[in-house]
Amino acid sequence: MKDKLIVFDTTLRDGEQSPGASMTREEKVRIAKALERMRVDVIEAGFPVASQGDFEAVQAVARSVRESTVCGLARALGADVDRAGEALAEAESARIHTFIATSPIHMKMKLRMEPDQVLEHAVKAVKRAREYTDDVEFSPEDAGRSEIEFLCRILEAVIAAGARTVNIPDTVGYNLPDQFAQLIRTLRERVSNSDKAVFSVHCHNDLGMAVANSLAAVMSGARQVECTINGLGERAGNAALEEVVMAVRTRQDSFPCDTNIDISQIVPTSRLVSGITGFSVQPNKAIVGANAFAHASGIHQDGVLKERQTYEIMSAEDVGWHANQMILGKHSGRNAFRARLRELGIELETEEELNATFQRFKELADKKHVIYDEDLQALVTDANLAAENERFKLSWLKVVSETGETAIASVTLSVDSIERQASAPGSGPVDAAYKAIDSILQSNTELLLYSVNSITSGTDAQGEVTVRLKKNGRIANGQGADTDIVMASAKAYVNALNKILYPVERAYPQV
Length: 511
Ligand code: KIV
Ligand code: ZN
Description:
The protein is α/β, with parallel strands linked by helices. Helices cover 40% and strands 20% of the residues. It folds into three domains: 3-277, Aldolase class I (TIM Barrel), CATH 3.20.20; 334-385; 389-501, Double Stranded RNA Binding Domain, CATH 3.30.160.270. Strand 14 (446-454) and strand 15 form a beta hairpin.
């Protein structure tokens, strides 16, 4: 009988800390439901003390997820732990994850605390968290650069205080696989009560080794891996869930454990996260990249046609590629539409929302012959965005663009429910549309990123546009999808402007 490897997903917390990846409460709930469907064991839903928005998002996830444990992050401070406990009050199964830094540089320069003080904070926080739930996790932040003696001491103390999971973060992605494996082995051997807690790992990808380090740790006895969809996360990101899960699944000959993940949900969930955050997946990304199962060379194609396993170690269908064969079209009715949304895990809360989305589906079906699941995901994201960002809405857009002539865009925006119009020339249709919008809003923002992806194949496919804007040190992403890519670009721009000009309060306090 193999051990279970616990999958702890932190897309909604560490993933959201990527600049520009912030998500609304509704988006977080939608991702959490997808993670639950995928049978993720623990969903870290946020950092409740960070802001009222974070608190409410964790609370909303705690209310809607029943099958997975919902976790909230807290610094090793009473007020943080209390806030996490409150946010998780309605969870079916709740975990509080408390942390404090233990490396010499963090203790001295950031916390300005002596090691004994750090240990005292950690023990107090764990005890306090146990007043809310039996399921308490402790992380010595920057463990990958901490002194082994102190790590052993603090882990022993927090386990004695009631931590059931001890998580070893390589916070700055500095470790090498053999070193990290050795660290886990040493801790398990030297911490006298190590058998009373599950050892977990949380690896960052600064040197591209997050997955390798996590797997090396699993070989040394770690039985929880913290990871994110598409490897989203601070800086270069975290270990990618899909890579960890598929490595363990594909190499069962080498791993003494397995996960409970429903791997058919991997690709749909990856798409959902990239659609919501605007962080597109590179084509050659393992498992979820568009080329991950594409064979271009003649020799490979020939081999695969004769015997798939010549060049494929996993099956694309197993991880959810090409599962979108259920096609809707302009003759599909409301029930088929609703049923397909349900199968995709999309629950529209009210009849009005369903009606509005069905209307948009019909409009899209008029322009596009067949509607794939990816189109539906985009439609719903787009519909939600439009509903939530009420201050500015794109009511109308006309662009005239002709070879050798300057493009001219005319736009009508609803600004706080007042219709305003403007026209502007530009070097191309998108430039003209953005200038026209800007002449109304005078946003003074810097455009950091503009990218267009085709959602499905074919010239009638919807284009999905992501823009990233910066203003006064803040960054916001916007998305838009449409069969007309100039329209999609304008929608994405307006979406980002709504977020950057009227940001939801958020901050990530550090001890
Ligand atoms: O990277 C890190 O150390 C973290 C901790 C809060 C676990 O994200
Ligand atoms: Zn982290």
